[in-house]
Write a structure and sequence with these properties.
- The chain is α/β, with parallel strands linked by helices.
- It folds into 3 domains: about 45 residues, 434 Repressor (Amino-terminal Domain) (Orthogonal Bundle); about 140 residues, Rossmann fold, CATH 3.40.50.2300; about 140 residues, 3-Layer(aba) Sandwich (Rossmann fold).
- Helices cover about 40% and strands about 15% of the residues.
- It contains 13 helices and 12 strands.
- The strands form 2 sheets. It has a 6-stranded parallel sheet, sandwiched between helices. The protein has a 6-stranded mixed sheet with strand order 7-6-8-9-10-12, sandwiched between helices.
- Helix 7 links the parallel strand 3 and strand 4.
- The longest helix is centred in the C-terminal third of the chain and has 17 residues.
- It is elongated and about 75 Å long.
- It starts with about 20 loop residues before the first helix and ends in a 12-residue tail after the last strand.
């Protein structure tokens, strides 16, 4: 029986003697070759039903446009640069990996790929690599992470008209380009509210040394929430680098000061608190409530499981893609800033049995 070759005919993927061409896709979808080209390069020009029909034909025929030809026509590589920075040891390290996966998936759906490159430990030194990649026309845009006060990268890119989006506020210049971030202050305030509802009144904060934009933001949320609830925060803050053993040492004075709960700036710091409690024969959850931040994969596996704040990383990746595509399309548009809310995941470390007697 002859194979159905009418547009849209047959089921599944059509048999080809070689790779499918744009003309074959157009025939299959019942549209012109220009319409197929628009579906690939300017999908906003097509009616939704037409776009869906073309995309279905592309999928059925396993059509792969020649990237080099597309780049020559559009002077676009369809690549987004992302510098992978060294991360310290700790259970919260995978957070950036989860973000990168979410962003890569979202960008892929929009027809872009992520070009990873090794970034130096100092984020500001990334600009040398940016310049090299731009000279080679290897990328169309960049996505930044690990933003900090005094970060030079946003201004460097903005002054050169290079599209970019940042996961994280620039802190020292909030007008410097498009960014999406997670509201850490809202998260730690929610943690304080949860602990107050359980009966806690002496709630400590275990954070990073002052000067970190992210860490200071999370500390601010704790401090302001304590004030709103009529509680004193005096003498209830300790600082540590994001390291389990360092946190174990740093939290000691808080545990001897009679606190009944600790809000930590990361799950790594929370784990240090777990170890310090066990050093004194006490148990997290039973004797003192602990809240972490980031809801790392370790949080649910700890004994007892750790209450933690979960960042909406899938949504972060999707918003980053949306902002970046808008910037590529309209380089002179008004920068957009999006602040997302983390979710408090309540587990055994702040169970009602851990409330003060």
């Amino acid at each position: 029986m002859a194979r159905d070759t009418t547009p849209g005919g047959g089921r599944g993927r059509a048999r080809q003697d070689g790779p499918a061409t744009l003309a074959v896709v157009a025939q299959r979808a019942g549209v012109s070759p220009q319409t197929v080209s628009n579906a690939l390069n300017s999908p906003e020009l097509l009616a939704p039903r037409t776009l869906e029909r073309v995309r279905r034909a592309i999928e059925e025929l396993d059509y792969r446009p020649h990237q080099a030809a597309r780049s020559l026509r559009s002077r676009s590589s369809r690549l987004i640069g992302y510098g992978v920075q060294p991360t310290p040891d700790g259970v919260s390290g995978p957070v950036m990996e989860h973000f990168l996966h979410a962003f890569s998936d979202s960008a892929h759906r929009a027809g872009y790929r992520i070009l990873l490159f090794a970034a130096p430990g100092d984020a500001d030194d990334e600009t040398d690599t940016y310049a090299e990649l731009l000279r080679e026309r290897s990328v169309d845009a960049f996505v930044l992470s690990n933003t900090h006060r005094g970060d030079r990268r946003p201004d460097w890119l903005r002054k050169r008209g290079i599209p970019f989006v940042a996961f994280g506020r620039p802190w020292s210049n909030r007008e410097a380009g498009d960014w999406v971030d997670v509201d850490g202050a809202h998260g730690t305030a929610a943690a304080v509210g949860h602990l107050v509802a359980l009966g806690h009144r002496k709630i400590a904060f275990l954070g990073w040394p002052r000067g970190s934009g992210v860490g200071d933001d999370r500390g601010r949320g704790w401090r302001e929430a304590m004030r709103r609830h009529g509680l004193s925060a005096r003498g209830l803050r300790a600082s540590s680098r994001d390291d389990v053993e360092a946190a174990r040492e740093a939290v000691g004075p808080l545990l001897t000061a009679g606190v009944t709960a600790v809000v930590a700036a990361s799950d790594t710091l929370a784990l240090g608190c777990y170890r310090a409690l066990r050093d004194t024969g006490r148990a997290p959850g039973r004797d003192l409530s602990v809240v972490g931040f980031d809801d790392s994969s370790a949080a649910a596996l700890l004994t007892p499981s750790l209450t933690s704040l979960r960042q909406p990383l899938t949504e972060v990746g999707q918003v980053c893609t949306r902002l970046l595509l808008a910037r590529i399309k309209d380089p002179q548009g008004t920068p957009e800033h999006v602040l997302l809310t983390p979710e408090l995941i309540v587990r055994e470390s702040t169970d009602s049995t851990a409330a003060p007697s």
